Amino acid sequence: MSTTGRRTFLKGAGLGAAALTLGAGAARAAEKERVVVGVIGTGGMGMHHVRQLAARKDVEVAYVCDVDQKRLADASKHVESTTKKAPKAVKDMRQVLEDRNVQAVFIATPDHWHAPAAILALDAGKHVYVEKPCCHNIREGLLMADAVQRSGKLLQVGTQSRSTAVVQEAMRRVLEGEIGEVLVAKSWNSQLRRSIGKTKVSKPPATLDFDLWLGPVPPVPYRANLLPGIWRWWYDFGCGDIGNDGVHDIDVACWGLGVTGHPERIVCLGGKYFFDDDQQWPDTQYAVFEYPESGKSKQKRQLIFEQRIWSPYVQEGYENGAAFYGTKGMLIIGHSVGWKLYGLRNKLIAEKTGKADLVAHHTNFLDCVRGDQKKLNADVMAGHLSATLVHLANIATRVGRALRFDPKTEQVVEDTEAAALVRRKYREGHWATPKGV
Ligand SMILES: NC(=O)c1ccc[n+]([C@@H]2O[C@H](COP(=O)([O-])OP(=O)(O)OC[C@H]3O[C@@H](n4cnc5c(N)ncnc54)[C@H](O)[C@@H]3O)[C@@H](O)[C@H]2O)c1
Description:
Elements: H1 3-12, H2 16-21, H3 24-31, E1 35-40, H4 44-54, E2 59-65, H5 69-83, E3 88-90, H6 93-98, E4 104-107, H7 114-123, E5 127-130, H8 138-151, E6 155-157, H9 165-175, E7 182-190, H10 210-214, H11 240-257, E8 265-271, E9 284-294, E10 299-308, E11 320-326, E12 330-334, E13 338-342, E14 348-353, H12 358-370, H13 380-399, E15 403-406, E16 411-413, H14 416-420
Parallel strand pairs: 1-2, 1-4, 2-3, 4-5, 5-6, 7-10
Antiparallel strand pairs: 7-11, 8-9, 8-15, 9-10, 11-12, 12-13, 13-14, 15-16
Helix pairs in contact: 4-5, 7-8, 8-13, 9-11, 11-13
Nicotinamide-adenine-dinucleotide binds next to helix 4 and helix 10.
C-alpha cells in the first residue's frame, strides 16, 4: 500500500484520531496486511519467535510445529492465549508446507535441520526466516542460495544485529571510512559455559519423536545430553559455539570489513583444552581468515576469531563482540551492548549503547514479504558468507592444518580429508535430504 493509500485507509476506517494516540510503529503495524506464518521448532529460540509474532497485529501464527509434544502444546497454548485463536499444532513440517495459505515459515530447529527445512519450504513457495547459522555445512549454504534463486522467494537469516539500529550506525561509520581503511577485523566469543557431562545411550523422552528430530541425519542413538539445546556441541547436529554465539559477531565482522566473498586462506588452532565431557567441538579456537585483494587500496584483508568458552571475564570490555582496526582509528562493538569509536592514540570520538532488536529483524522480513520494503537485512548470501567462516574454522581445527579455499567453487583445495568435510552424509533416501548434495 502506498503512503497516500495508507492515510486514506486510516481515515476511511475512522482511525485517524486513534492513530495519533498510538505509537507510530503500532499504527503502522495495525494497518498492514497480515502475513500468515508457521513457526517450525518451538524450543528456546522458537518460543522467542512465537511470543514476538503472536503479539503482532500484522501476523497470523497459523501453525506451530515441533517434534516434541510438550513444546508443541506450550507454543500452541501461548498463541491461543495471546491471539484468542488456536493455531494448528503439528509435528511434521510437511503439513505446514502443504498449506497454501501459509506465506512464510520461521525455522528455529537445531542446525542440522536448517538447510533441509529451508530448501523444502522455498520449493513449496514459502518465504523463509531461518535461524543462524543458516546451514550445518558449506555445501548446504550454496544449495540454499540456489533454492532462493530457483523459487524467487525470500530468505532472511536470524542474525538480528543486522536490523539493530545501534549496530547499523556503527557499521555505517566504519564503511563510510571514519576509522580509515579497515584491513583487519576481529570477533570473539569469550564466556563461561557449563560442562555437558558424560552420558550413556538412553531412551528418548516419551513426548519426543526422536526419529523425526534426527530427520535426514544418519540415525544415532539418543542420549540425555543432546537436549535441551545441547545438540549444538555434537558434530552431527550443531557447529559448536563458533556457530552458536560466535557467528553473530563473525557476521558483524564480515559486514564492517566489507567483504563480499569468501577467504582464500584459513588457519585455525584449537581443541578441547578445558572441558572433560562429551562435547565434540572445540572450547578453544583461534582462527585467521585471509581475503583476496579488494577495496580502494586493493589490499588483502584479515578476519580473526577467538573463542574461549571457559572465561570468567570479558575481553575488550565485552563478552562477545567485534573490533575493526582501521588506518585512522578503531571501533569496538559488544554483542547486544553498544560500541565505542576511537581515533588516534585511543581518543574516544563517539559511543552508543543499545540491545539487539529481534522485532526490527522480524519487521524487515515481514515488510519485504509484503513488498513494503525491498531489501532484506540478512539475506542468504550474508548468512552463507558468515556460516562458511564457521565451517572453515571448524574444518581447519578438525584436520589440524591450514586450508586453501577456492572462493568461486567453494571447495577446499589440495587436502582430500578437509575437502570431504565441506559436505555431510545424509540418511539414505530421506525425504528431507536437500536436492543436489
Ligand atoms: N538468533 C539468536 O539470537 C538465537 C538464539 C538462540 C538460538 N538460536 C538458534 O535457534 C535454533 C534453535 O536453538 P534452541 O536453543 O532454541 O534449540 P532447542 O533445542 O531448544 O529448540 C529446537 C526445537 O526444534 C524442535 N525440532 C527438532 N527437529 C524438528 C523438526 N524436524 N520439526 C519441528 N521441530 C523440530 C525441537 O524439538 C526443539 O523444540 C538454533 O539454530 C540456534 O542457533 C538463535
